[in-house]
Amino acid sequence: MSGETGPTATDAAPITLGELAAVPVTRLKGVGERKAEGLAIVGVENVLDLLTYYPRRYVDRTKEARIRDLVVGEEALVLVTVQRVSSRRTRGRPPKVLVTVEVTDGSGQLRVSFFNQAWRERQLRAGMTVALFGKLEIYAGRKQMTNPVVDLIGDRTGRIVPIYPQSEKAGLSTWEIGDWVAEALRRSQVRGLLDPVPDWVLDRFDLVTRAEAFAGIHAPDSMAHRDVARRRLVLDELLRVQLALVQRKRHIERTTLGIAHRVDGPLVDAFVARLPFDLTDDQRAAIDEIEHDLAAPHPMHRLLQGDVGSGKTVVAVSTLLVAVQGGYQGAFMAPTEVLAEQHAQGIRELLDGVEVPDDGATLFEARPVRVELLTNRVGAAERRRILAGMAAGQVDLVIGTHALIQEGVEFRNLGAVVIDEQHRFGVEQRATLRDKSTGAVPDVLVMTATPIPRTAAMTVYGDLDVTVIRSMPAGRQPITTRWVRTDAGEESMWDAVRSEVASGRQAYVVNPLIEESEKLEARSAQETYARLEAGELAGLRLGLLHGRLGTADKETTMQQFRGGRLDMLVATTVIEVGVDVPNATAMVILDADRFGIAQLHQLRGRVGRGSERSWCYLVSRSDSPEAEARLGALVETTDGFALAEVDLELRGEGTIMGERQKGRSDLKLASLRRDREWVERAREVAFAIVDGEGGLEAHADLLDEVALFLDEDDQEFLLKG
Ligand code: ADP
Ligand code: MG
Fold first, then answer.
1. What is the widest separation between alpha-carbon atoms in the chain?
2. Hey, which of 16, 18, 170, 589 would disulfide with 38, CB 3.0 to 4.6 Å?
């Protein structure tokens, strides 16, 4: 090395992110105690926090226009000097605060109006230079902008000015933050930033170095430069998450002893042969994939995604039967008692006539598969009998709710577990169930009818393998969805519903969702019931179903509906999942705009389950853009995966990530939506590294960095690698 670099640079190794995280912000010039407190409010305590406190926006001064050249109705950026600020209350009800600011850029004058932003009067003072982004209007013959985006850029030079998220409470300005970031970057140049991501990854995706990326995101030469920088940092974030997940997945596979199930036994074949229909290609593929896992000596940990009505139950039963045919037991866990009961009934029907060949216990005699239902509603004596049967290994399949993982429930040799509707079960409960086995860990299949976009699944369920059933069984009748928005529309909707009933079909009416109050929801269902019974649906046999009814009442009503002794069910969202009555062909959802896309889709899935054409009516007078987007999407398509993408688009990933992502909140730049392809690339790279020569441990710096961003619980998994 030449002597050009300073003496400290020659032998010191490049700086790691961990080292940056150990440097408090107070080491930076100009960060005293008060500023440090302000930074702490926005979550910045050390230099790493600061470098990953990314600009919220950039003012691109190459796009700057002169006031003289502005065109009415077009958005533009102008850089101006504030001349005068005044404020007053407008007349009218309610009164508004109007702040008026006169500005100039030498080429012309502009008046800027802010409505209900009284604080602008304090923010903007004569003599300040500000960037305004907005649309030119002409008002009373004068050039004007209303509520433009304002950035105080002070005397910043450079063509692209980063704008940092500011908070008044923290008392920090964007240029202060910019100065500290610049200082941090300058000082880290002495030793340089360590880049732990292997070169082949950077080459393959044409990524810049980490040092260039940090410089480019904070002080880009152009927006294209910023994009290149962002790409690199996005990969870093996603790669850390995926490395943690993949490492954990491999760790579980390596360290837990599973059961190598016998997949060529006669039971599954007998079951499939007796089905009154042929399996769909996707069902067959799912079963194959699962059997492959079951046969392997490590425990399966798989997510089965399939839209409502895609036929997941058959796949679940076949999974459990693989265990049974090898002499193990299977457990099926449902989110509610009603669903557990329904599944028990359905599974018993599916298994009618399927026999377990002589297994030694029954001297040359085949016996039926023994299926038991275990919920909290089972009486004490019955419960004892079932528990004894389970402990002795005589019960082949148990179907139940959380009750299955209670104290005192034991299996003799639990081999496979299916968990339906994962979103209602915690990760913890899943772990408990796995612990129910005394010896090897049972295989676990988690089923969900909530389609999750692939990239989100990769991140949220990154330690699970994913199987998707996309196609529907043949012969399904289409569901026509209509958005009913007028009185006349409602009238003809009720006519249509009555005529469905007249031709022997059944229907549901779902009541408006009332967040957080089962009681209010129940009352509203009662009111709807009374209104319809006396009005639009007079003379029809109506049933009422809501969460406040006793379980026996609920079951009676469901049975009457299933048996065709009720024409219609007026219900709350209790019918959202699992209810399966093929003769029901019409679904009316009142105040549909109150529901989310996923929920509407689930509700709609209650019809279209038989051989008749079905209808779904979304009743809503709302004309808000959100209602337009959501209800419009439902009318447009019945493909749950397409709807899930729309949902992700509308709501962002926050809701999907939820709890599960808490300890891994490293995603500051990356968006599961915008950066879809990078999620896949990061996952691919993570597998290559973890499964590569020496594993993640061979990349010590990378391993350290992954650990840096994880909370302690997750680290444990990681470091055990
Ligand atoms: P989900 O995926 O919503 O749990 P189910 O397993 O309840 O779907 O299946 C929905 C309906 O489709 C059931 O009545 C089931 O018997 C039927 N079904 C499942 N697979 C097929 C198939 N391959 N062909 C025809 N009908 C099927
Ligand atoms: Mg189901």
1. 102
2. 170
